[in-house]
């Protein structure tokens, strides 16, 4: 589903050149749960932006579902973000004065889907993300951190994307709540979702079936974790 081939990313500021990614290559198969782990400054955020079609590589190629994303126009990249990728961020990024249902159904509005179907799909996504139905009418600022992150997961699921890209999704949560959110990702992966999780924490990465380690812009490790569901 994903193939990254020899991707390099350079940032220039005046005469200073920073090489954030140094010829990164890997593949992710359909239905995999992959964690990309690295410390601050390792290049993992730059890689996430490329995988999420939010930025383009300086050199190299990024294929998503067989399409070379690195060559596409800004408009086409925007369509890919809307239709193929579900984002989950550390900061939730919910609208505080909108209900849970409205927050989740909003991406469907941009796709031109009518109101009744939007609501039905939002309900299904929220149930899949593990949020109790009696919270659907609440405003997002009335929810706990864990509930807000489950709403954010539902919003990522609602357009049935090819990939869920989660950037430090437990960063604003206590350990216990974070564990519940990670178990939600595990369950979604068991149901066949492809998930890429960006983190700097080893215990978070260990929820995935495969861990790619990045340091100083290069991949230094790529380990499969067989039977990762059973050992938790």
Secondary structure elements and their pairing?
Layout: E1 2-13, E2 16-28, E3 33-37, H1 44-51, E4 59-64, E5 67-68, H2 74-83, E6 85-89, H3 100-110, H4 115-128, H5 145-157, E7 163-167, H6 175-190, E8 194-199, H7 202-205, E9 210-215, E10 218-224
Parallel strand pairs: 3-8, 3-9, 6-7, 7-8
Antiparallel strand pairs: 1-2, 1-4, 4-5, 9-10
Helix pairs in contact: 3-4, 3-5, 4-5, 5-6
Describe this structure in words.
By secondary structure, the chain is an alpha/beta fold. The protein has a single domain (31-58, 73-224), classed as 3-Layer(aba) Sandwich (Rossmann fold), CATH 3.40.50. The protein is built from seven helices and ten strands. The protein has helices spanning 44-51, 74-83, 100-110, 115-128, 145-157, 175-190, 202-205, and strands at 2-13, 16-28, 33-37, 59-64, 67-68, 85-89, 163-167, 194-199, 210-215, 218-224. α3 packs across α4, α3 (100-110) packs parallel to α5 and α4 (115-128) packs across α5 (145-157). The longest helix has 16 residues, at 175-190. The two termini are 27 Å apart.
């Amino acid at each position: 589903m994903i193939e990254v081939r020899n991707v390099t990313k350079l940032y220039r500021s005046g005469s200073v050149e920073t090489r954030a990614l140094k010829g990164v290559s890997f593949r992710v198969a359909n239905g995999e749960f992959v964690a990309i782990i690295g410390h601050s400054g390792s290049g993992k955020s730059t890689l996430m932006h490329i995988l999420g079609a939010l930025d383009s590589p300086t050199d190299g190629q990024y294929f998503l579902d067989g399409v070379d994303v690195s060559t596409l126009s800004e408009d086409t990249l925007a369509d890919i973000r809307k239709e193929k990728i579900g984002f989950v961020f550390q900061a939730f990024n919910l609208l505080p004065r909108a209900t849970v249902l409205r927050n989740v159904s909003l991406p469907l509005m941009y796709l031109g889907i009518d109101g009744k179907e939007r609501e039905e799909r939002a309900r299904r996504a929220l149930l899949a993300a593990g949020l109790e139905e009696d919270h659907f009418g609440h405003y997002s600022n009335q929810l706990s951190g864990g509930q807000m992150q489950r709403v954010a997961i539902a919003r990522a699921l609602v357009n049935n994307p090819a990939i869920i890209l989660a950037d430090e999704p437990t960063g604003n949560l206590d350990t216990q709540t974070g564990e519940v959110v990670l178990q939600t990702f595990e369950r979604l992966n068991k149901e066949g979702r492809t998930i890429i999780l960006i983190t700097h924490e080893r215990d978070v990465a260990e929820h995935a079936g495969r861990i790619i380690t990045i340091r100083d812009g290069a991949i230094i490790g790529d380990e499969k974790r067989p039977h990762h569901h059973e050992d938790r």
